[in-house]
Amino acid sequence: MNVRCIQYQNFRSHRILTFEPGEGITLIHGPNGSGKTSILEGIHYCALTKSHVSATDGECLHFTSDYFVLNGSFFSENEVSTTVKIVYKKEKEKQVIVDNCEVKPFSRHIGRIPCVTFSPSEMVIVNGVPAERRRFIDTLISQTERKYLDDLLDYRRVLHQRNALLAQLFSGHNIHKDMLLLWTENIARLAASIVSARIQFLASFFDQFCALYQQLSVDEIPSVIYKCSLGNISNDTSPEALYARFLARYEETGKQEVLRGQTMTGPHRDDLLFLLHDKEIKKYASRGQLRTFLIALKLAQYRFYQETLGEKPLFLLDDIFSELDVTRTADIFGILETCGQTIITSAEKKGERKATIISMESLKHIKEK
Q1: Containing domain of residue 51, as a range?
Q2: How do residues 319-362 score in pLDDT, each as one tens digit?
Q3: Are residues 129 and 8 part of one domain?
Q4: CA 353, CA 312: separation in Å to the nearest integer?
Q5: Sheet arrangement for strand 2-11
Q6: How far apart are CA 36 and CA 333, in angstroms?
Q7: Residue 142 backbone phi and psi in degrees, to 5
Q8: Residue 69, CA distances (Å) to 43, 72, 175, 249 in order
Q9: Which has the closest alpha carbon to 268: 147, 126, 117, 162?
Q10: Would the pTM of this model clear 0.70, i.e. be above it?
Q11: In sequence order, what DSSP letters do the residues of 25-36 get, joined into one string?
């Protein structure tokens, strides 16, 4: 997948801007605060309908503006063109328009433009709370498996309903037991499907990750473990077996769940453990090791999409070379040269190899014309 052109209007610091990257590696360089990250952010909006830096739509408005518009033109390796228009106005619902047709719900657009990002804010994936790692694996799988995304959205809805029911039971409301049983069966089945998809994904993803990690001039042994709220599970545990275990666990913890007013077991409580030499990295790793681990995860995500979808995804890399030495930077450039369209931001001009180099100053001159 490639970006042919994207136009920004009232988006972040860009009142009006047109950006046309090269087909291989494009390096955007300029001082901090010049708007480099928001160029990637606009592309991410067109791909996944939202920001990649956890910003709200309103936070992406240009200063005193009350609306922003993004117009993106994309084409696949088979030369199939796709246009995406994102329109946001204050106090109105955001619009996502694909090939001149409005898309609702937005989840229907996910996967149409496969995209992988790296940004400093995503360091929370390797050193933050479990919710960040769950978001990482959910976003990753959702772009390749529509059923997983549907199950995930249904699970969140059922979880909300079941928690509300548990809270009502704690408050003394007279609710028929069959109603709780119905929601419990629904959440157990969805939980089993989601956890099964996650462990099957990790089984295939891990080999790619390890291979790429070794290419980054690293003499370390990484590992990734799925920490399930059910306890130990193996890669060959079937969805049916998981369903039975979830039902049994909900029966065991039923009284505690009513007292707490929340569902205590499920994929919303699971985590990924990242380790080096069998030690958890968020406790023992240096900043450089953490950054390298995340970069390897993102490179493996790219390879996974390429093999699964038969299409090279967009690669959006924000300030990826910060805190990396010359050797590691060269290793990453070498890998990126084998990828498809890759757009990198940097405070400094880098890349002596084949790359389209664009300065923010030159983009501003084009904008002024």
Answers
A1: 1-114+311-369
A2: 988 877 888 888 888 899 889 999 999 888 876 567 899 999 88
A3: no
A4: 21
A5: 14-19, 2-11, 67-75, 81-89, 95-98, 101-102
A6: 19
A7: -60, -30
A8: 12, 10, 48, 48
A9: 162
A10: yes
A11: EEEEE--TTSSH
